[in-house]
Task: inverse folding
């Protein structure tokens, strides 16, 4: 068994900045000055550049002549993200119906049980992590490497949004149940019901995330200064 590697500094910094952008702690238009970011997080400029390039590829920042600026996420952005996700995840679950092994179904059920346990103790962050692993499993089971690549490119953005929304959910049990229901339908092999269940699930997630982002209190934008 291979030892688990710690995320690279650039990945760690990207995760921190991504979360701050999604939560609007860094407002759209904020200038992310490389030297200032490096000083704030006590890293060299290399990891800062890596992090900013990741965020640029995810549409959260943009490069201009004076450096990188926060773009953020609007309601339109969330709709675009979920339109993309629905289109690829419908393909993934349809493929999963034909290709899921007993071991993969068993792993899916283990994740659902983990989600229920997280809901029991109101562990929102752990629940969100399990939720993301459940959906990543669907892509892997589907067996299309290109779909997995697209999912992995945007999964960090969905993970940050998920962390935000589950913190507001009073009861996480209904969401855990929905994931179990989706897995039941995949095992039963009813493609039409699987697709309908997934569409309903993603539509609900889209609505909750849009509401959560819109409800955030705006804070003044500005530079990360040294």
Result:
């Amino acid at each position: 068994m291979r030892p688990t590697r710690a995320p690279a500094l650039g990945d760690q910094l990207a995760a921190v900045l991504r979360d701050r952008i999604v939560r609007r702690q860094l407002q759209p238009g904020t200038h992310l000055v490389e030297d200032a970011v490096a000083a704030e997080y006590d890293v060299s400029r290399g990891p800062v550049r890596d992090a900013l390039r990741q965020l640029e590829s995810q549409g959260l920042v943009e490069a201009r002549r004076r450096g990188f600026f926060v773009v953020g996420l609007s309601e339109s952005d969330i709709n675009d993200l979920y339109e993309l996700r629905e289109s690829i995840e419908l393909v993934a679950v349809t493929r999963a119906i034909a290709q899921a092994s007993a071991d993969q179904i068993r792993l899916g059920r283990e994740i659902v049980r983990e989600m229920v346990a997280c809901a029991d103790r109101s562990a929102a962050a752990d629940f969100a992590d399990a939720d993301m692993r459940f959906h990543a499993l669907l892509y892997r089971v589907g067996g299309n490497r290109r779909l997995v690549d697209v999912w992995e490119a945007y999964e960090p953005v969905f993970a940050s949004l998920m962390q935000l929304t589950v913190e507001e959910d009073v009861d996480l049990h209904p969401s855990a149940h929905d994931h179990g229901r989706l897995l039941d339908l995949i095992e039963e092999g009813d493609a039409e019901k699987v697709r309908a269940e997934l569409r309903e699930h993603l539509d609900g997630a889209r609505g909750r995330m849009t509401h959560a982002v819109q409800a955030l209190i705006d804070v003044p934008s500005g530079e990360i200064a040294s």
User: Anything to note?
Assistant: The domain at 9-72 is CATH 1.10.10.10 (Arc Repressor Mutant, subunit A).
